[in-house]
Amino acid sequence: MAMLGRISNFFGKPSNLRSSNQLQVESKYSKASDKTDNTDKSHSFYRNCEKATTEPITGDITGSIPKWLRGTLIRNGTGITKVGNDEYTHLFDGLSILHRYHIDDGTVTYTSRPLESDTYKKNMAANRIIVSEFGTIGFPDPCKTLFQRLQSDFSSLLLKKVDVTDNCSVSVGYYGDQLYAMTETNAMRRIDSKTLETIGDKTVLTKYVAINHATAHPHVCEDGTVYNLGSSYQSKKGPHYVVIKVPPTFGSKETSYEGAEIVAEIPFTYKRYPSYYHSFAITKDKLIFIEAPLRLDMLRLATMGITKKPFSSAMSWNTSIKTRFHVVSLTDGKNHPVVYEADPFFTFHHINAYEEDGQIVVDVAAYDRGDMVILLQSSKVDNASNTAYESSARRFVLPLNVDTASDNQNLVTLKDCKATATMVKTSGTKPKVYLSPQNLTKEWIDLPRFNYHYNTEKYNYFYGVTSLGEQNWSTPEPDSLTKVDIKNDKTIVWASKDEIPSEPIFVARPGAVDEDDGVLLTALMDKHEEKRATLLLLDAKDMTEMARVKFQTAGTFTGTFHGQWANQADRIHLF
Fold first, then answer.
1. CA–CA separation, 359 and 350 (whole Å)
2. Quick check: 464 and 366 in contact, CB under 8 A?
3. Which residues, including other chains, have CB under 8 Å from residue 540's CB and lie 6 or more apart?
4. Which residues contact 293 (CB under 8 A, 6 or more apart)?
5. Cα–Cα distance for residue pair 277/224, rounded to 1 Å
6. In the predicted model, what is the mean pLDDT of residues 27-48?
7. Mind spelling out the 3-state secondary structure of 464-475?
8. Angle between helices 146-159 and 2-11 (to 10 degrees)
9. 462: Cα separation from own chain's centroid
10. Of 21, 155, 235, 358, whose CB neighbour count within 10 A is largest?
């Protein structure tokens, strides 16, 4: 085990952070189970698509499709949850199914197709799960002896050939004119926006920039430049989070990442325990990264092949450390010298960020408990853990200039803002500011989207998936969409008793002046009819239904996480 000792020594053990066996979630839900999950997969998101709708079908329309709405919505999610007799045990793990809704001249067609990743091909060829995912461990060769498996795993570890999944089931997005399915490993898969077929080999990000993985939520600028955030475990300067810049790609390049470069680095606060993160925020010239107490143990990650445990088993939620905000310049790569901290919280999804009067406004959908990521290991969770799933929209304000601030002074000066930023007395070399948020919503909300033309700008509206909850019709699943009016502290809700809405995507009306002048697109999953897909169009101003388009699918219609709309006339496609 000398190799393990060297790995441990490389990452080190900070004196003010507990060792991995002490870094526990402070509840009875502290660890993902190492055993096979035999719970009843009754939640709709565990449905299995046994047959995709690969040939376009035309939907039946109720209502009216705006004549100006022409383009394609592509959504991505975990649609294949069973391979042979094996079942995926975590909400994040199923094999990717891509969904395409094409709107032209008032007609809407639908197709779906599995992402033909290497992972998909290997699993299907073996008729079992052989590639490990976030919360499900795969077993490549059951015929090997224990000694042969250990020998193979040690060889992979030493030669850095650990086979990570390219099951890109989280999101889709354009890099220039190239459309990619994305996940949180170091792989992306290019897909054809018309046929949904997988194009060429996978793009392995590590070949182009020194990173081990990156988010599935990059930001696209008006000129087509893309920014993303990743982690580099083997930097000469020590482990870092890294900011990646990808120039606009149009033409015949094999992959958009050919021109990628690292423009900034953020050191891990604790070398052995980096934060798990899902997204980030940008302003016009800065990136904001939230380093949450949901931590990964690098030693556990490095030995997963040997211990036969999934990625999620290396996670722990540690409330003894604060959530930290990092601000870096996108122009010169410098880290802002102020340390910003808040009480422990975790966020999957940022909403928006912008700078006003020398202060950065950062809006997120935040969870008080980061262990909710682990709780998604099962479709049924004890009622005591229900609050773990409840995220609320929160606004944090980061003052940039604190040189003249006095201790305990609230540095937030924005009008009608309830968030605070208090100077903290510190003996360190960097000034420290404690942040307290303003709650933008009372009810839980996640999968937030807004008019992306207002990205990095002061804005007033966003939309998200919510639930009216058991008090209305006793469902544990999302059943509502909410529009949040930040300025007036108001919400408008659309809800359905029998349908589960996807993340709402805003499409602006051409020539619109008002921020909320446009259409919301959401895919509805029927709770009772498993072979029905519905595309719902809502008026983004008042959340009233404009049209419904129903499709009878070839196989079971499954849920999705994220998607992107591409206007037919646009060259650059924003989120």
1. 17
2. no
3. 461, 463, 483, 506, 516, 517, 518, 519, 520
4. 275, 317, 318, 319, 320, 321, 322, 323, 344, 346, 370
5. 24
6. 50
7. EEECCCHHHHCC
8. 40
9. 17
10. 235
DSSP 415: T
The overall average pLDDT reported for the chain is 85
What whole-number distance in Å separates Cα of residue 320 and Cα of residue 359? 28
Q: What is the pLDDT of residues 435-485, one digit of tens each?
A: 999 999 988 899 999 999 999 999 999 999 998 754 443 445 788 999 999
Alpha carbons 107 and 463: distance in angstroms, whole number: 26
Q: Residues 384, 524, 47, 312: is their CA dihedral positive or negative?
A: negative
**520 C-beta neighbours (distance < 10 Å), count:** 23
- Total residues belonging to the chain: 575
Place of tokens 């009306």: 509
Tens digit of each residue's pLDDT (9 = 90 or more) over 167-217: 999 999 999 999 999 999 999 999 999 999 999 999 999 999 999 999 999
Q: What is the dihedral of CA 465, 470, 473, 476, to 10 degrees?
A: 50
Are 419 and 437 a contacting pair, CB within 8 Å? yes
Taking the alpha carbons at both ends of the chain, their separation in whole angstroms is: 47
The C-alpha atoms of residue 564 and residue 489 are separated, in whole angstroms, by 28
- Order of strands, edge to edge, in the sheet holding 392-399? 346-356, 359-367, 392-399, 438-439
Highest mean pLDDT among 21-30, 130-139, 554-563: 554-563
Counting Cα atoms < 13 Å in the Cβ hemisphere of 85 gives: 1
Residue type, 100: R
Tokens coding 137: 């461990």
pLDDT tier at 314, thresholds 50, 70, 90: confident
Higher pLDDT, 296 or 104: 104
Q: Within 10 A of 146 (CB to CB), how many other CB atoms are there? A: 7
**pTM for this prediction:** 0.88
Does the pLDDT at position 544 exceed 90? Answer: yes
Distance of alpha carbon 553 from alpha carbon 550, whole angstroms: 9
Find where tokens 């045990």 sit: 89
- Would residue 216 be called left, alpha or beta, if left means φ above 0 and alpha means ψ between -120 and 50 degrees? alpha
Average pLDDT of span 239-254:
89
How do residues 483-514 score in pLDDT, each as one tens digit?
Answer: 999 999 999 999 998 999 999 999 999 999 99
Report d(CA 66, CA 45) in Å as an integer.
Answer: 31
Alpha-carbon distances, residue 435 vs 362, 395, 410, 413 (angstroms)? 11, 10, 9, 13
